[in-house]
Structure formats: structure tokens, C-alpha cells
Request: fold
Amino acid sequence: MSIPENLRYTREHEWVSGDEVVTIGVTAFAADSLGDVVYVQLPDVGDQVTAGEVCGEIESTKSVSDLYSPVTGEVVEVNQSVVDKPETVNADPYDAGWLLRVRASSVPELLAADAYAALIQEG
Amino acid sequence: MKTPKILKTPLHEVHLQLGASFTDFAGWSMPVRYSSELAEHRAVREAAGQFDLSHMGEIELSGPQAAGALDYALVGNLSAVRVGRARYTMMCDESGGVLDDLVVYRLQHDRFLVVANAGNVAVVADRLRERAGGFDAQVDDRSVKTALIAVQGPHSPAIVATATGADLSGLKYYASMPARVGEHEVLLARTGYTGEDGFEVFTDADEAVAVWQSLAAAGESHGLLPSGLACRDTLRLEAGMPLYGNELSTELTPMHAGLGRVVKFDKPGDFVGRAALEKAPEPDRVLVGLRGGGRRAPRHGYRVLHGERAVGEVTSGALSPTLGYPIAMAYVEREFAEPGTELGADIRGRTQPVTVVPMPFYKRSTT
Reply:
């Protein structure tokens, strides 16, 4: 399971890159556990999101999962191409499958790649 | 605390080698998908899929009065089933509630095979023993010794013909025959749960791996994909087939599910549930199909609305991979059950319009 070294992670299986404006997605582990993603609901540009709180939904053929915001701040961009083609989350979770960009006012402590790897090893 | 033991089928190692993801289902660790459930779903609709269904129960009834015992134990008229044929039927409790839905094969004049859902095997076996008590018939739960492999899809006849060397032209839908896969004797049935033409292969648990591999090899040039429970669920939903625990339960009679035709009131003799089912009033809510717009599916447990009022509940739902729009089954109050009725579904706090439609949602074209 791929876990890029240069990203930071949450225990809820989101990844984060960048500092002031952060890009957020879900990990390959999450995408794989969900199964084929068929619907993604994201916040609107301008919405405020709060670290640890639900900011969207990801639906696979079998289930619906909440998307938690890893940071607090204002949504500055959402990935419309993922909304249009939700399967991108499975195909390319760390790149084309990014979900939203947030101008972060507060970033809680996040996991480094090795800590996240250990977390998903535990099951 | 006692942790329940998770059961593994005789094909577990094969699934591991194929890279399956697993899910716990009725106490069994079962492959939920191997690669992508949508690819597996499409393979079954367009080519073929291979399923491990060894978690299901196989219970044999034999003896001079086996048919009579089944007529008493189940709601169907099993004496009327000819040797080599199979019947979809149900076991009800005294009050008419559904204990399980079953497929029963008549293997010989005095020998039947009852196939039960994984979660209900113990109940079905116990009740069969109890209900066969007054008959000259033996009940033998062979579930652990038996593996079940399904090959489903338009290419399945070619695959199964290659693997068995059998002439399948005389094997009708809902019929079975003894066959061989390589050295191994199997029971070959033309049945399934996907809406496609397909086969189910019953084999000794010890021989399951060899039989699986032979079928897989025969299917290689036909686009056969190993397929998990995730796609099995979307396939059966498209085909409008009820799932025990979702559409069927002891709280509901066969009539609720629109399956009153499986109850054979005209068969001679009593059967368990007859009195209650004969007296039962018209069900106040019935199972319907719903079609939604957009891409969000109403799912199990979501409310069905008429205006602000809850008039039903969804039992199964998914974005149909074949049709491209959301489909669901739901129990709704009778007056809202007519096809064409416009209702709403509460999808996580947002009401989305849905329309009552006839089932099945998908029907294969027979050529």
C-alpha cells in the first residue's frame, strides 16, 4: 500500500500536503477499504471547515463514509474533476484524486508517513 | 468475553493468493472483492464471474417420506418437484414469519438438497429435524463438508461445458445433474443469484480447490473474473432478488415481500405457518422498487417520504453499475406502492425524489 513520505496523515485516513494552503485527500488505504468510489460530496469554496469535523462524504458502492477535515480554515478550491469522476479517488488518491484546498488557520499535529504506516499495520 | 470464531471456507488460501479483500459475513471470512467490485459486476453481466459460496448451508433430506417432510416443513409443494429440478421456497415459523428463503433440489425420488443462507443454517437444520420428526426421513447437515462455487454470466455455459465436458443443452434453468470436473464428482445446477444465466457447483470441501482451479482455467479465455460479495450484492439488487436480513425476516411474511406465490395453500396437508398465513390480512406495507436521479443511492435503513411523512424504509440500495442510476428496494405503505408513485428518500438529511418502479430493475436479454 503506497504511503508517500512527503505527506502528513490523520488517523481518519486523510492526507495533507503544504503549509498555508493545504491540499487534502484520502489515502490509498482508505480508497481501497471503501471499494469503488461512486460519489463524492465536498464543501463549497468559501466554506469554513474545522479540524476533526465532517466536511464531506465519500460514497462507495457499498457504504457512505464521512470525510473529516484535517485542518481548520477556509476552503479555497475543490476538485471538480473528482466530483465528476469519483473513481479518480481509487485510481490516483495522492495526485489527481485530491479533494480540496484549504487556507489553514490552524493545523493540528498530523502523523508522518512511518507513523501512519504503523497505524494501518495495526489494523 | 467469548470471541466468536471466524470461519474460513476451503477456498480461503486461493482467495489470499488472488489478493482478495475480506469481510466478515454471517460468521465467515468471505472475499468481498478481488480487484474492483465494479469490474467484477461488469464481468458477470458481460462475460462471467466466479464466486465462492461455501458459507451457504447444504442440508440433505432423504428417506421414503422426505418429500412429505418438506411439504410440512416448508411453504412450497416439494412433492410436486420432479427429480433433477429445483424450486425456490421458504421456511416460515408458526406465525408466518420467514425463517429463511431456500433453494431445494430434488436429487432422487427420495433425496433432496436444501440450500440455506449462511446465517440461517443452524435454524433451518434444527427446524427441519424437528419438523421431519413424524416422517420416515433423515436430515443430514452437510454444510461443513460441502463447498459451493458459482459461475455466473453469459459466458458461463461455455466455461462450465469446458470444465465438465458435459452437454448442458438439456440442463434447464433451476435444474441440476451429476457431473465431473476433472476427477471430481460434483453436483452441477443451473441456478444463481445474479440475474444472469449461470451455474452452481456443489463439491466436497476437500476437492474445492481443485474444482475452483479447473473452472478458473476453463474461464481464462472467456473473461472469467473471481468475484466477491460486494458485486454479488449489486447484481442481486439489480435483479430484484430479496436478501435475507434486508428484505426478508421473521417480522415479515412472504406476502410482504411480494412472494406470496411461493406459499402453496393448495397443496394437501398442513404445513408450518399455514393457519397464520391463511388468516393474515393484506400486508400494510409491501416491497417496492425505487429509482432515483443523480448518483446518490438511498441505502438500507433510510426513510422513504411522502411530503414530510415517513411512509416506508429502504431495505437495500446502490448506484446501479449496469443502469447508471440509483436503485433501491423499500417497504412502503400499500397506498404508495403503485409504480409511477413519486416519493422522496431521506439521504442523510436531504430529500431526493424517487419513483416507484416495477422490479426487476435489470433483466437480461434472452437471445
About this structure: The domain at 11-53+145-238 of chain B is CATH 3.30.1360.120 (Gyrase A; domain 2). The longest strand of chain B covers residues 98-108. Chain B has a mean pLDDT of 96. The first helix of chain B runs from residue 12 to 17.
